[in-house]
Design goal:
This protein has 132 residues and is α+β, with helices and mostly antiparallel strands. 37% of the residues lie in helices and 20% in strands. It has a 5-stranded antiparallel β-sheet with strand order 1-2-3-4-5. The longest helix has 24 residues.
Amino acid sequence: MNWWIRPASSGVAGRTETDMAVSADYRDFVLEQLAPLGQITARRMFGGVGVYANGLFFALIDDDVLYLKGDDALKVEFEAAGSHAFDPFGEGKPMAYWVAPAEALDDQDILLEWSRKSLEVAAKAATSKKQR
């Protein structure tokens, strides 16, 4: 297991105020790996970190685990890759973000491929939101 991969937790249950939800090393590693996508920025949110590419929110980091935005179509691919959905409170109410497949964190090209798919989902969601 590489130093930057940490098993995903089921949520924030049991977290204390002194727990660090995202280490600076992990955040920096992820942002560096995603740099070829364009302007990558991170913003702290709800104890984790939101990740943006060119201003579009498409990923989050919590407990040093990277989650990528998905939709019903991408859900099938994430499940086939062994990923599970982000369930921040462990209540069986997962969000539309999926653990980045382990091999993606070992290979930047694979990570960028998954991230581009997530960016497409985020762009569609943003366009749909604007049309409403």
